[in-house]
Amino acid sequence: MTRTSTCVYHFLVLSWYIFLNYHISQKGRNTQMSKVFQNGGQWKYLTLLNLHTFILPFSLVEVILRPHCYPLKKNGLTLLAAASLAYICRVLWIYSETGTWVYPVFAKLSPVGLAAFFSLSYIFIASIYLLGEKLNHCQWGEMRQPKKKK
């Protein structure tokens, strides 16, 4: 992909996400339509509509088609941890506001179980990140970001 097509792709994805946030927030105002969003609240549909569960196959295809420049492992895993922490905060905030878990399985877990689940989720995500880096290295060779000159 060229830089222009990558920018267009990211713009379209962001536009879709903004549209979904706006559309779902408008649906919640209508009491008759809000029954559609029962059992988990309206936010769980963002997960389904954005198809985040399909990211792994698309990422694997992208590794084959296009080389990536990965940052240092320390920086990449730190950014991944920050994004994971932000997502966990968002899930907990939604629970504190609505009293309903975004994912119903969380209602069955104790606080220690939730902490273990989130920790194991990060380990799983970090493993996928490292696997992607390894596959990229096998497919395209060493691709590091150039160091900045002082």
TrEMBL record:
GO terms for cellular component: endomembrane system; membrane. This is Androgen dependent TFPI regulating protein. Pfam families: Far-17a_AIG1. InterPro entries: ADTRP_AIG1 (IPR006838). It catalyses: 9-(9Z-octadecenoyloxy)-octadecanoate + H2O = 9-hydroxy-octadecanoate + (9Z)-octadecenoate + H(+); 9-octadecanoyloxy-octadecanoate + H2O = 9-hydroxy-octadecanoate + octadecanoate + H(+); 12-(9Z-hexadecenoyloxy)-octadecanoate + H2O = 12-hydroxyoctadecanoate + (9Z)-hexadecenoate + H(+); 13-octadecanoyloxy-octadecanoate + H2O = 13-hydroxy-octadecanoate + octadecanoate + H(+). It comes from the Eukaryota. Its main location: membrane. It is a multi-pass membrane protein. It is found in: Endomembrane system. The chain crosses the membrane at residues 7-25, 45-65, 77-95, 115-132. Belongs to the AIG1 family. Keywords: Membrane, Transmembrane, Transmembrane helix.
